Amino acid sequence: xxxxxxxxxxxxxxxxxxxxxxxxxxxxxxxxxxxxxxxxxxxxxxxxxxxxxxxxxxxxxxxxxxxxxxxxxxxxxxxxxxxxxxxxxxxxxxxxxxxxxxxxxxxxxxxxxxxxxxxxxxxxxxxxxxxxxxxxxxxxxxxxxxxxxxxxxxxxxxxxxxxxxxxxxxxxxxxxxxxxxxxxxxxxxxxxxxxxxxxxxxxxxxxxxxxxxxxxxxxxxxxxxxxxxxxxxxxxxxxxxxxxxxxxxxxxxxxxxxxxxxxxxxxxxxxxxxxxxxxxxxxxxxxxxxxxxxxxxxxxxxxxxxxxxxxxxxxxxxxxxxxxxxxxxxxxxxxxxxxxxxxxxxxxxxxxxxxxxxxxxxxxxxxxxxxxxxxxxxxxxxxxxxxxxxxxxxxxxxxxxxxxxxxxxxxxxxxxxxxxxxxxxxxxxxxxxxxxxxxxxxxx
Length: 444
Prior knowledge:
Elements: E1 37-41, E2 47-51, E3 54-56, H1 57-77, H2 80-105, E4 110-112, E5 125-126, E6 133-134, E7 162-171, E8 181-190, E9 193-205, H3 210-232, H4 238-262, E10 270-271, E11 273-278, E12 282-288, E13 292-296, E14 308-310, H5 317-323, H6 329-333, E15 354-359, E16 365-369, H7 371-374, H8 379-388, H9 392-405, E17 412-421, E18 433-437
């Protein structure tokens, strides 16, 4: 029982010692910040809150129960393979319900969630010939075999000119009447100096033309905000890049939110936004929603030698269920709530923006895509097609064709950017529009 006048945990209700910052029962902050909390609308008018990396088990029950209801309807309406799929889904969800109910019976009210942050490559010693990063103590480049002599040179070695082969494609898919996705790839330059390449995928939400308005407005605002910011000064470290990108995304959020409230035809619209700004040696990313960014390399990008890794985290309820072990990635792919996004642009006056930086090496490939692709194409398939297909444009076309062949239930968008050492080959050069800055800056 909580004593009258004593503070209580806002998550589980347990009594708190005056001045306590965290609850001893569930670990939640004693005074949660509004900026750190996300709210999700559930079927039946219920709300679900995600705060400080925790989920309420009782609210989570509502998500699973709505999934059971959905599949029971499908079971009554379907026959054959669809009926078997519905029965299997009900069985899986019933096991989750049993597990959650047992935890609540034991007195647990919340569960902590963690994002699946990818392992970051740490290769601080660049090869003077190909530019590939290597371990600090490496004697030879792991990519081309060039000796890495330290000599008497104590400063950073200059890297050779880098080129980025880029292709973008977007498709309406097989089921949607309009394409609400927006993609972009373009260069930031100052005179003859190349600053970086901007890659963007935005997946609009809201139906009819509202989603299209949200995604295109977000991308246009982002480009304008970045142009103004880079015109003023260039970031000198990763944290400064993160701050720049976050502010540009927040400005896009403010514009979409204001438009949604001012125009009745756009009421409730929103969009995801996944951004990569690629400089000579690094990619700086910002992300909101469930579009994705991947890093691929045939030589491997993780300590386990995998040729791909997902750089972004899906801001969906189903992704969190995978994180806490309640769903497998295979089950998440067909879950009825897989499109329930708890963070997007335009739905709230302020949104939280993920930001990270990733070192780049020759042979690396960045892939940005909307969920219309990954709903039908598995990660391993995506990596294999991109790495085996000659030409970025052809790889985009193959991925979209495969997603459409498997149903194409959503709009499909892909951006592929491959890092090459040395001059750009004419047959692989993309032709994105330049975002020219009027004042010269030093190259990054």
